[in-house]
Amino acid sequence: MKVASDERILGSGEFVEGLLFEVEEREKETLRLARKVVGLSVLLEKVVARAGLKEFDLRSGDRRRAVVRARRLFYQLAVRRMGYSGAEVARYLGVTTSAVNRLAVSEELPELKKCLKLF
């Protein structure tokens, strides 16, 4: 019986297989979106329209709950799913890289998967 292993991962063969499968699925999703070449401007338009906000709201320092949630969604889509770097997204919106990266890696929003269907 062959057991899955990878020197970079500690754990049972079943754990390693599950982890590698998950990484492969995320990579496919990222590549699928990247192939469509969705620009940050198109992504921003869709996110603000969905949230009922204006582009200015996401670029401003506004801390209203709806604005922060829309920003977080934008960052997670751009960085996690589309493969943009935190620095690219930060330059585009005029915010710090730290702010982008913090929200991009925070707990995934439930509406993230719904938004992926827009592309």
List keywords for this structure.
0% strand, single chain, 119 residues, Chromosomal Replication Initiator Protein Dnaa, Chain: A, mainly alpha, elongated
Could you give a short description of this structure?
By secondary structure, the protein is an all-alpha fold. The protein has one domain: Chromosomal Replication Initiator Protein Dnaa, Chain: A. The protein is elongated, with a radius of gyration of 17 Å.
The helix/strand class is mainly alpha
CATH superfamily: DnaA protein, C-terminal DNA-binding domain
Low-confidence stretches at least 5 residues in length (pLDDT < 50)?
none
Terminal Cα span: 42 Å
| Helix percentage range | 55-70%
Shape: elongated
- Approximately how much beta-strand content do the residues carry? under 5%
CATH topology: Chromosomal Replication Initiator Protein Dnaa, Chain: A
* Largest sheet properties: none
Please count the beta strands (DSSP E, at least 2 residues each).
0
Q: What is the level-2 CATH architecture name? A: Orthogonal Bundle
Instruction: State Rg.
Output: 17 Å
Explain what you see.
The protein is elongated, with a radius of gyration of 17 Å. It has helices at residues 13-35, 40-51, 55-59, 65-81, 86-93, 97-104, 112-116. It has seven helices and no strands. It has one domain (13-116): Chromosomal Replication Initiator Protein Dnaa, Chain: A (Orthogonal Bundle), CATH 1.10.1750.10. The relative contact order is 0.12. The model has no long low-confidence stretch (mean pLDDT 81). With 119 residues, the chain is mainly alpha-helical. The longest helix is centred in the first third of the chain and has 23 residues, at 13-35.
